[in-house]
């Protein structure tokens, strides 16, 4: 790496939530280890500001990313750090995802302040979640459970849990673990049944497409995790082909196998009654094609119907 690039301070755009800051600091540490100076620039997004509406009502695109993308365009920051799950499936043409950082364990979990909380098949507990995917999968596998909205950052949600607005809170293990709340985990959902949202557990790094090529290359080298990257390419291709957005109960998880890559994905109707889920395996070089193919299989099996009915319900 040439000296002038190393001398440059990388300004890192991030949301201000504790999890976002953890992710940004992890990014900064990796960049510093590679010889860069770094600076965090905290930027608030619509998803942080509007807390009285569920995400699918705010609008599906870029709720947690838009303001960060503006700051990339305006040159206030060199990179923006996002939870990969929050990044829309197609990003604007003047921006690009330059790296995906090493993925954490992907499962959804339940956290509770009651260490004896048990999720029985007939459980009629109230579970806090605002995710359409989690709500629909809970309906499918735990029909007696009810759910309650729990928007806000992790700390806000834990306060609602403490106030007993629900019996347990359903979250991504990655965020719970990274915040140091894993001692509250009372249930881990198997990832084959509660398949995570595309990108869950990984951190995506975005930059302007016209950033100096040498700098881009150095950023990729310092931050990208190759195995995570190939899995995320498959999952994001699935998401793009489904044209889902974050408010659609679709899911996709790719993992590397001895021979190549395996991707499981699908969609579940909001009432939990129809679940479409398939798995494809193939060589890693076809990761994106496999994601697309899987989405087309799901759409043809009736996924298009599920999408249409969700969209028409929302537009009413
Ligand atoms: N939309 C919120 C969001 N975006 C990323 C995570 C968790 C951390 C991750 O998946 O990397 C969460 C919270 C949650 O789902 O519990």
TrEMBL record:
Q: Cite a single GO BP annotation.
A: protoporphyrinogen IX biosynthetic process
Pathway linked to the protein: Porphyrin-containing compound metabolism; protoporphyrin-IX biosynthesis; coproporphyrinogen-III from 5-aminolevulinate: step 2/4
Broadest EC class? transferase
The domain of life is Bacteria
User: Does DNA damage show up as a keyword for this record?
Assistant: no
Entry's cofactor comment: Binds 1 dipyrromethane group covalently.
Gene3D superfamilies the UniProt entry points to: Periplasmic binding protein-like II (3.40.190.10), Porphobilinogen deaminase, C-terminal domain (3.30.160.40)
Q: Which UniProt keywords apply?
A: Porphyrin biosynthesis, Transferase
Residues with PTM S-(dipyrrolylmethanemethyl)cysteine: 246
Protein biosynthesis as a keyword?
no
InterPro entries assigned: HemC, Porphobilin_deaminase_N, Porphobilinogen_deaminase_C, Porphobilinogen_deaminase_C_sf
All residue ranges annotated as the Porphobilinogen deaminase C-terminal domain in the record: 231-299
Enzyme Commission code(s) on record: 2.5.1.61
What does this protein need as cofactor?
A: dipyrromethane
In what residue span(s) does the Porphobilinogen deaminase N-terminal domain sit? Answer: 10-210
Q: Which HAMAP family match?
A: Porphobil_deam (MF_00260)
Reproduce the miscellaneous comment text: The porphobilinogen subunits are added to the dipyrromethane group.
The annotated subunit structure for this chain is: Monomer.
Identification of the protein by name: Porphobilinogen deaminase
What phylogenetic lineage does the species belong to? Bacteria, Pseudomonadati, Bacteroidota, Cytophagia, Cytophagales
């Amino acid at each position: 790496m040439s000296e002038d690039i190393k001398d440059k301070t990388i300004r890192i755009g991030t949301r201000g939530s504790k999890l976002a800051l953890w992710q940004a600091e992890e990014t900064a540490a990796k960049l510093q280890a590679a010889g860069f100076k770094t600076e965090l620039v905290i930027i608030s997004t619509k998803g942080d500001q509007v807390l009285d509406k569920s995400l699918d009502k705010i609008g599906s695109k870029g709720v947690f990313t838009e303001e960060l993308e503006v700051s990339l365009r305006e040159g206030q920051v060199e990179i923006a750090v996002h939870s990969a799950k929050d990044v829309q499936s197609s990003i604007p043409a003047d921006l690009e995802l330059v790296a995906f950082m090493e993925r954490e364990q992907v499962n959804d979990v339940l956290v509770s302040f009651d260490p004896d909380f048990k999720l029985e098949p007939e459980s009629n507990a109230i579970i806090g979640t605002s995710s359409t995917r989690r709500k629909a999968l809970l309906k499918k596998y735990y029909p007696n459970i009810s759910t309650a909205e729990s928007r806000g950052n992790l700390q806000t949600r834990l306060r609602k849990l403490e106030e007993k607005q629900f019996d347990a809170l359903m979250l991504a293990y990655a965020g719970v673990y990274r915040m140091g709340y894993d001692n509250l985990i009372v249930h881990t959902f198997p990832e084959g049944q509660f398949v995570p949202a595309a990108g869950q557990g990984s951190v995506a790094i975005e930059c302007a497409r016209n950033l100096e090529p040498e700098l881009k290359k150095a950023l990729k080298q310092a931050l990208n995790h190759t195995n995570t990257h190939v899995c995320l390419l498959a999952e994001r291709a699935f998401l793009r082909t489904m044209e889902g957005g974050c408010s659609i109960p679709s899911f996709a998880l790719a993992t590397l196998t001895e021979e190549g890559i395996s991707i499981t994905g699908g969609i579940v109707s909001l009432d939990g009654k129809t679940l479409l889920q398939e798995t494809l395996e193939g060589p890693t070089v076809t990761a994106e094609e496999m994601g697309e193919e899987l989405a087309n299989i799901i759409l043809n099996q009736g996924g298009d119907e599920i999408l249409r009915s969700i969209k028409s319900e929302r537009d009413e």
